[in-house]
Amino acid sequence: MGPSEIQLSGEERVRYSRHLSMPEVGARGQARLKAARVLCIGAGGLGSPAALYLAAAGVGKIGLVDFDDVDLSNLQRQILHGTKDVGRPKLQSARDRLHDLNPNVRVALHDCRFSSSNALKLVAQYDIVVDGCDNFPTRYLSNDVCVWARKPNVYGSVFRFEGQSTVFAPHLGGPCYRCLFPEPPPPGTVPNCAEAGVLGILPGIIGLIQTVETIKLILGTGESLVGRLLHFDARKMKFREFNLRRDPQCPVCGETPTITEPIDYEQFCGMTAEVPAISVQELKGKLDAHEPVQLLDVREPFEAEIAHIDRAKLIPLRDLPDRANELDRVAYTVVHCHTGMRSAKAVQLLRDAGFTNAFNLKGGIDAWADEIDPAVQKY
Ligand SMILES: [Zn+2]
Description:
The protein has helices at residues 10-15, 17-20, 26-35, 47-57, 90-101, 119-124, 136-149, 177-180, 193-196, 201-219, 265-268, 280-288, 301-306, 320-323, 341-352, 364-371; strands at 37-41, 61-65, 106-110, 128-131, 153-159, 162-168, 228-233, 238-243, 277-278, 294-297, 313-314, 333-336, 358-361. 35% of the residues lie in helices and 16% in strands. Helix 4 (47-57) runs parallel beside helix 5 and helix 4 packs parallel to helix 10. By secondary structure, it is of the alpha/beta class. An 8-stranded mixed beta sheet has the order 3-2-1-4-5-6-7-8, with helices on both faces. A 5-stranded parallel beta sheet has the order 9-13-12-10-11. The longest helix has 19 residues, at 201-219. The chain contains 16 helices and 13 strands. Zinc ion (ZN) binds next to helix 8.
């Protein structure tokens, strides 16, 4: 149903009255919002403010892709969810909150990981994608799929006190994510929110910039961030702007694209660059059998305070090059972190330094808590 055929109910006329009195929105714009379909990838830090304000604004269909449960450590920034929701699937918590805010909005729940096998089908059901993911494989995937589907991909990312946003839309004249970053950074070099931390308000600000851009695109009004990257520094309270250009050689949106369908993004981002690894069950077996194991934890001290595995020696990854001499080079060594990413890098580093018996603990302390010791606090 196109916007011209959409009628607003009496309730909606009252609900959206502040929109209806704006010449830039009016009944026509409100009908466009009602006809619009927006897909939010992730119901987390960026997805929370985005979904809340999209619902409040009366966007007709909001899709959410997520497969996580609400964790206590999410609530510092993921304001879609409440304390009573801890342990519930984020999608259910989000649906309840959004329906409470605006029952006129259709909330479509996609309880899955956004992946090469479902991304094209998902994006096809929407007009605009708001990317609220926190990892490179998903970011490249959402970029590529949006380029192929000719849908704007509203981008945001946050790091501690800083964040940035733009709209990737080659079909509207701007670049795509790959024009800027043809290759992902080496795995482990860019810490995620869990590792680096983030000021809880930051995803609020950046998520709302993404939402403003989304609403402008729906209304067809104003100047969008297509071709511009907006950078925000909360410490200096400064916004800076960078002009972005399309790369004619871009493998996805360029003149002679070489990537025309979803690839294996985990592999592309080096996430499956295998280092020798053992499972948490194997480690448990070795510890129970009193086999000599040098257990190394490469997380940050604050993480070890939340949860640790007994006997593990703590050397944060960034200190490891300087402190590797504190370790026994020939001992059977098992390295763990939170989920296995940083420790994979540590194992590579140790093996390069001659530790031929270094192994990664698959799934990190997260898997240990899930499969071996439920008394270990998850975070
Ligand atoms: Zn491109």
